[in-house]
């Protein structure tokens, strides 16, 4: 899931028909390896110094910026990003052709580029971005306007190199994090990138006005954990409320009998081992107090909300359940935060879905008035489908299925964009 080249899969609905296409994200690394007809990077588990052949060829680095983690639609283009930071690549929404790197990123001060999970505010058209690295101040934050220009950026000083994966926002604030799972400093000094969980170090959250300065940052402390993905955030009086997936065991042990590097890596991707559950943090801007509480006993991750309420109070989230032992999603849950009710749909034996975005119904009058759309990979029937659910009744199952021409690999992040997001022809 980390070393492969990024490939986008797109389905579009118009005039009673569905159309599908997929394209590689043609990054610098992709083009270089195509030209050489060989791998040029060692990957997440490799060591470049061990990858020298007799002809003198050596790996170009530990990891390739594959732009393979996340996708959003902004300023009339699809924008792909990488989880360990890099160049944001833009793709044509109609053809999925890679058109180049986002011009605004050249002005973003982070030396390592932009992280995955930039956040789109559908109401303003702004894109909130962050980047992190191994050089002080270790994190940067910025705002890209609806017209695709970087309009604001600041430093987010941290005590050392960290591994944030996601950020959140409200109507007036951005929320970034300093969590106690990061590269072991002693090993990092030796060039070894090995993450370690520090259970005695608190989780810290930076709450800053969306166009604020470094001096405006308010830091809040909470229970030690690691959070891969946030669900949403909003303002409630003096409080900023943040929902995400609290890992109750961010550094699980290897399973009995598990061997090799992949066994070590996949324990960090097994939601059952990580014990990732929905959780809520409340940061009081008046008193500086943090309160937190669990939102569910069910193990879930990769949550999405109706994009029209992103940054505002939400009632529903649409979360994925994980197949035990694998980085695969075996079901979908509609979680009602007002009542606590959870409606789950299981994809079936050997069927795995992708993150499931919400598509509002035209003329929608309620937060859940719309559809849920996901791609599935069926290992039993050797096929893939796009499933469409009525978001008001997830347990009833799909109201439509679109058979894809081939079975595709199981995906992770996804987004939905309305036809109005397309640029003029």
Description:
This protein is mostly beta strands and 425 residues long. Helix content is 6%, strand content 38%. The strands form eight sheets. Strands 25, 26, 27, 28 and 29 form a five-stranded antiparallel β-sheet that branches. It has a four-stranded antiparallel β-sheet with strand order 3-4-5-6, with no helix packed on it. The longest helix is centred in the first third of the chain and has 9 residues, at 28-36. It starts with 6 loop residues before the first strand and ends in a 22-residue tail after the last strand.
Q: How can the largest sheet be summarized?
A: 5 strands, antiparallel
The helix content, as a percent range, equals under 10%
Number of helices in the DSSP assignment? 4
Mean pLDDT: 92
Strand content: 35-45%
Distance between the termini: 35 Å
SSE-based structural type: mainly beta
**Computed CA radius of gyration, to the nearest angstrom:** 21 Å
Query: Number of DSSP strands?
Result: 29
Oligomer: single chain
| Low-pLDDT residue spans | 52-57
Per the principal axes of the C-alpha atoms, what is the gross shape?
globular
């Amino acid at each position: 899931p980390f070393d492969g080249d990024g490939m986008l899969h797109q389905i579009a609905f118009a005039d009673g028909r569905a159309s599908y296409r997929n394209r590689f994200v043609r990054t610098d690394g992709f083009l270089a390896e195509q030209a050489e007809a060989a791998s040029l990077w060692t990957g997440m588990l490799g060591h470049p110094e061990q990858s020298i052949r007799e002809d003198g060829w050596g790996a170009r680095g530990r990891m390739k910026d594959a732009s393979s983690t996340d996708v959003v639609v902004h300023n009339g283009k699809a924008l792909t990003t990488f989880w360990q930071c890099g160049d944001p690549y833009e793709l044509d929404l109609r053809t999925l052709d890679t058109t180049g790197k986002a011009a605004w990123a050249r002005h973003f001060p982070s030396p390592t580029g932009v992280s995955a999970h930039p956040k789109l505010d559908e109401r303003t058209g702004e894109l909130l971005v962050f980047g992190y690295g191994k050089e002080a101040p270790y994190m940067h934050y910025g705002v890209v306007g609806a017209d695709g220009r970087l309009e604001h950026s600041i430093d987010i000083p941290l005590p050392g190199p960290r591994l944030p994966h996601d950020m959140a926002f409200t109507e007036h604030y951005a929320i970034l994090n300093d969590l106690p799972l990061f590269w072991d400093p002693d090993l990092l000094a030796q060039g070894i990138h090995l993450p370690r969980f520090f259970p005695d170090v608190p989780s810290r959250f930076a709450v800053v006005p969306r166009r604020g300065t470094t001096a405006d940052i308010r830091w809040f402390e909470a229970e030690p954990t690691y959070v891969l993905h946030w669900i949403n955030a909003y303002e409630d009086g003096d409080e900023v409320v943040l929902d995400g997936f609290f890992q109750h065991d961010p550094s699980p042990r290897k399973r009995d009998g598990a061997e090799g590097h992949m066994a070590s890596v996949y324990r960090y991707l097994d939601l059952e081992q990580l014990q990732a559950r929905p959780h809520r943090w409340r940061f009081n801007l008046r008193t500086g107090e943090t309160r937190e509480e669990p939102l569910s006993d069910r193990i879930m991750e990769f949550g999405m909300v109706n994009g029209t309420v992103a940054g505002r109070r939400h009632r529903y989230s649409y979360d994925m359940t994980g197949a035990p032992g694998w980085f695969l999603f075996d079901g979908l849950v509609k979680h009602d935060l007002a009542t606590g009710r959870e409606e789950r749909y299981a994809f079936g034996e050997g069927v795995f879905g992708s993150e499931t975005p919400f598509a509002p119904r035209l003329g929608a009058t309620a937060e859940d008035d719309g559809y849920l759309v996901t791609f599935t990979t069926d290992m039993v029937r050797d096929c893939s489908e796009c499933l469409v659910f009525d978001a008001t009744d997830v347990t009833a199952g799909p109201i439509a299925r679109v058979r894809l021409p081939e079975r595709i690999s199981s995906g992770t992040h996804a987004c939905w964009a309305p036809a109005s997001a397309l640029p003029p022809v």
